[in-house]
Write a structure and sequence with these properties.
The chain is α/β, with parallel strands linked by helices. Helix content is 58%, strand content 9%. The protein starts with 13 loop residues before the first helix and ends with a strand.
Amino acid sequence: MAKFGTPKTVYLGEEDHRRISAAVGEAEMHTSGEIVTILTEKSDDYLDVALCWAAAASLLALAALAIFADFYIGLWDRLTDGWGAEHTPAELFWMAGLFAAFQFAAAMIVQAWWPFRLILVPGRIKTKRTHERAVAFFKVGAERRTHGRTGILIYLSMREHRAEIVADAAIAGQVPDEVWGEAMIDMLGELKEGRTAAAMVSGVEHVGRVLAQHFPRAEDDENEIPDRLIEL
């Protein structure tokens, strides 16, 4: 069976990384907030979703076998050069199991092609998995790593076409989630035009303006988290 997954795509070059790091550094010149940027190819493999579709294909195959039993038994006899003899219950169960297994394997093979597999994933699941992955990265890379709990993560998941902004406690307590909606709209607009680096820079600049308003930089502020983009 074809191997699940897809070769990793390189979305940004060295110059793009420098642009984004520079944008983070510039934004943090005006705020005590710390901006973390992560770009990942995908947030999940959705293997469980693929298995569900394959199981559904097997059940549909068994239903078709039950409804059109005479047709499929006749087809089996022709393929096996049978004489149309009466089949025992054991033979019928064996044929049904083989037919269902074939449909399951075929569905998994088809879904091994990533673009088709992703088409079959409901949008709400993509959104949920992207959010969960962003939160998981935030907990590792930004949460409680700043003195004033002012870390914020900008996360792009390329295959899902999803963006997330996750803020630490101090920021979340003062800035409603709706404020970040404009930043995500700007980022997704750039992504639709194929400008990945520009999308991240746009998000950083927007987040930086909001942070500068609510968390202006103090004289003794230190850079607590590296400015570099993390590409996974």
